[in-house]
Design a protein that fits this description.
Elements (H helix, E strand, L loop, with lengths): L7 E4 L2 E4 H11 L7 H39 L7 H10 L19 H4 L5 E5 L3 H8 L3 E3 H6 L15 H18 L23 E5 L2 E6 L2 E7 L13 E7 L3 E5 L9 H16 L3 E6 L2 E6 L4 E5 L4 E4 L4 E5 L6 E6 L5 E3 H17 L13 E5 L4 H19 L6 E7 L2 H5 L1 H7 L4 E6 L1 H11 L16 H16 L7 E4 L8 H7 L2 H4 L4 E4 L2 H13 L2 H8 L7 H4 L12 H25 L4 E4 L5 E4 L1 H16 L5 H18 L17 H11 L10 H18 L1
Parallel strand pairs: 3-9, 3-21, 9-14, 14-17, 17-18, 18-19, 19-20, 20-21
Antiparallel strand pairs: 1-2, 2-15, 4-8, 5-6, 5-12, 6-7, 7-8, 10-11, 12-13, 15-16, 22-23
């Protein structure tokens, strides 16, 4: 395998970056049963068939947006007439006819997706340690989650174990047991360790040594009995811990939470996915001066009440999120010399790698039903969903897989998808396993689509706007009407503040209450705490209760969050601009300079928020909207960036790898990228941030290589 001077290798007419070609032939293909030459010719055929259509779909997005811009612009600031708007959107094909009633028919779907309800993690694929933490978050210590967070008021005293704090934790956990798996008589607080007699005997499943296994609402609970443990020694029953089945599923992310801009980045990402599918991924890290190695957890084995063996997964069921249809990748050039669509490459390679799981050659099994789970983000409408369905057909044919082995998760995060959600589900009805809502991207697309209709309300007011309520309700209502209950996940979005677990515990119970059988959380600890919500709420009973609800009218979804007639003070405008600018800068500086796509970024009030690229889309589009409509001037926007650059520099002062942005702003690539997201925001396709971020990150990597 010889690379040319440009580092590319010819494979069946495709020009493939040498690192990617070597990875696929030396690591990914062996053990799959797929012949390398057939693989390359099959990939070339898929690109020949689907790359032109991919380009046509993107061109249709642009054409629709141009017509929408003209229609809103012609209003001249007048209020939008809902009926006229709906007629117009139907005339141009933005809205399609509702499909006849149907039921999704996905088969071979694992219980974690179809028949259980619980938390979901999303983890950047480029960080092996984080990936392993998330995969292993299937089980979590409730004691640890309570002891180290703000769920219980106060903090531990001293450097060692605080018995008073421990007593609060134990009381909270035993009250949880009383509500979820009550004893036939008395309270778990008074339990003396004798064989427990439960009010519902079938909740007692078995044991592993002295560990007792319980089950409620489909989720398992372990009571860890250890009288030699410092906590167990002082407990009447010897109870040393309560472990909860927590993150049932994890999305391993190639998209919004990573900065992958070239072949080397893509290979690093694919290599981690391969390690997960083969079960041999490891990560070494330093802790307290010692080098530790983390790997995937084994399955858990118990003896059932009748003496048979129970085997439960030790790890989350893993999805992989591919990139959307927009971006191309320099890792592959098509015969005409253009970069290849990145989403097509992701579909082929991530499915190929998952063959190691399906063939049973790895250390563990991910899907016990024999499926591959791919989340497809940022699709606009049923035509794009149908494109994905046919692409996955072609990938299955290439890899010799049965039809619909590849399952798809459809992220309901674009306005045209939300407005045509039933038709989107219909386009993938034989492989659909997931829909969800996402506030940030969906709001970013709301603002970009209706950019010329007028100035938008403040960002903090968006969650209380009429269209958001309709969006969240319609997602569940349409999902249930399409038969997803018992077949697929209906999901809700992320809790972004990992240090505010008390607030999460108070508020995020609303997600299972809606009938959503999963929701995103920012950490394994949050997953364990959020798992308690799925004990408090019987999600499938909630779905049954909502099954007959009429779908919220489309008119409410299409209500644009405009601020006509609102006159903000100069202080309010400045506050909004600075809040947005700080959020953009704080995230972009890590993305561009360090290649970090997801991390806990301090907000303007120094509260750490888990941020990914969706943060930029909403903030940059909001600033661009206010500039377009004269709420803020370009000079005021620049002033906000200058002021907030100094703040972000101060927030990152302890990071030895950080490059300051304030002062030499013109020479800071990160600063220039952040500013471009706003000042070029009107021209970015659907308001996406990827094109600009990739351009500046590639420039930063080239500069770093040149300086090394």
């Amino acid at each position: 395998m010889t690379a040319t001077s440009d580092g590319m290798i010819d494979k069946a007419g495709l020009r493939v970056a040498a690192p990617l070609a070597r990875f696929l032939e030396d690591q990914a293909l062996p053990g799959t049963g797929v012949d390398p030459s057939a693989f390359w010719s099959g990939m070339a055929d898929i690109y020949a068939r689907f790359a032109p259509e991919n380009r046509d779909l993107l061109a249709r997005r642009d054409a629709l947006q141009a017509k929408i811009d003209a229609w809103y612009g012609a209003l001249g600031g007048r209020p939008v007439d809902p009926d006229a708007q709906a007629r117009f959107l139907r005339e141009i094909g933005y809205l399609v006819e509702e499909p006849a009633p149907f039921v999704a028919t996905s088969i071979r779907v694992d219980d974690e997706v179809a028949r259980l309800a619980g938390p979901q993690l999303v983890v950047p694929i480029l960080n092996a340690r984080f990936v392993l933490n998330a995969a292993n978050a299937r089980w979590g210590s409730l004691y640890d989650a309570l002891y180290g967070t703000d769920v219980i008021p106060g903090t531990p005293s001293g450097r060692g174990y605080d018995p008073d704090r421990g007593a609060q934790v134990i009381a909270w956990a035993k009250a949880f047991l009383d509500s979820s798996v009550p004893l036939a008589t008395g309270s778990w607080t008074d339990w003396d360790g004798s064989p427990p007699v439960l009010a519902q005997p079938d909740q007692l499943r078995g044991h592993a040594g002295s560990t007792i296994l319980l089950r409620h609402n489909g989720l398992h609970i372990e009571l860890v009995i250890d009288r030699d443990h410092p906590i167990g020694a002082s407990d009447p029953a010897g109870l040393a811990d309560v472990r909860l089945e927590s993150a049932l599923t994890t999305i391993v992310d190639l998209e919004d939470s990573v900065a992958a801009v070239d072949a080397d980045d893509k290979v690093a990402a694919y290599a981690n996915w391969l390690g997960l599918m083969k079960g041999d991924l490891e990560a070494q890290f330093d802790k307290g001066g010692r080098t530790l190695t983390r790997s995937l957890e084994d399955d858990r084995r118990y003896t059932a009440q009748d003496g048979s063996e129970i085997v439960l997964p030790g790890r989350s069921l893993l999805f992989v999120r591919n990139v959307g249809h927009l971006m191309t990748t320099p890792a592959i050039h098509l015969p005409d010399g253009t970069e290849a669509p990145e989403g097509i490459l992701d579909g082929i390679v991530t499915a190929l790698i998952a063959l190691h799981d399906l063939n049973g050659t790895g250390r563990f099994r991910n899907s016990r039903e024999g499926s591959i789970y791919i989340v497809k983000p940022k699709m606009h409408g049923p035509d794009e969903a149908g494109f994905t369905n046919r692409l996955f057909d072609a990938v299955e044919d290439l890899l010799g897989l049965d039809r619909h082995t590849i399952k798809v998760g459809v992220m309901d995060e674009e306005r045209r998808t939300s407005a045509n959600l039933a038709a989107c589900i219909a386009a993938v009805k034989d492989r659909i396993v997931f829909i969800n809502t996402g506030f940030l991207d969906r709001t970013g697309d709301e603002m970009h689509t209706a950019m010329r209709a007028g100035p938008m309300i403040r960002k903090s007011e968006m969650k209380a706007s009429a269209w958001i309520a309709a969006y969240e309700d319609r997602n569940v209502q349409i999902g249930l009407a399409c038969g997803l209950s018992g077949r697929a996940q209906i999901g809700k979005g992320m809790w972004a503040a990992p240090d505010r677990m008390a607030d999460m515990l108070d508020q995020k119970i609303a997600h299972p209450m809606t009938g959503a059988n999963t929701a995103w959380v920012p950490s394994p600890t949050a997953a364990t705490l959020h798992a308690t919500h799925y004990h408090r709420v019987d999600v499938f009973a909630r779905q049954a209760a909502r099954q007959s609800e009429p779908v919220t009218p489309l008119e409410k979804l299409l209500t644009i969050p405009l601020a006509h007639g609102h006159n903000w003070s100069l202080d309010e405008i400045r506050d909004e601009l600075e809040n947005n600018a700080q959020g953009i800068l704080g995230y972009v500086v890590r993305w561009i300079d360090q290649g970090v796509g997801c991390s806990k970024v301090p907000d303007i009030h120094d509260i750490g928020l888990m941020e990914d690229r969706a943060t930029l889309r909403i903030s940059s589009q909001h600033m661009a909207n206010w500039m377009l409509h004269g709420i803020a001037t370009p000079a005021e926007v620049d002033a906000a960036f200058v002021k907030m650059a100094a703040k972000v520099d101060a927030q990152n002062a302890s990071d030895p790898h950080y490059r300051p942005m304030a002062g030499p702003a013109a020479t800071s690539l990160a600063y220039r990228a952040a500013r471009a997201l706003v000042f070029e925001g009107l021209d970015q396709p659907n308001g996406y941030t990827e094109p600009l971020l990739h351009r500046f990150r590639q420039e930063a990597k080239a500069a770093q290589t040149g300086n090394s």
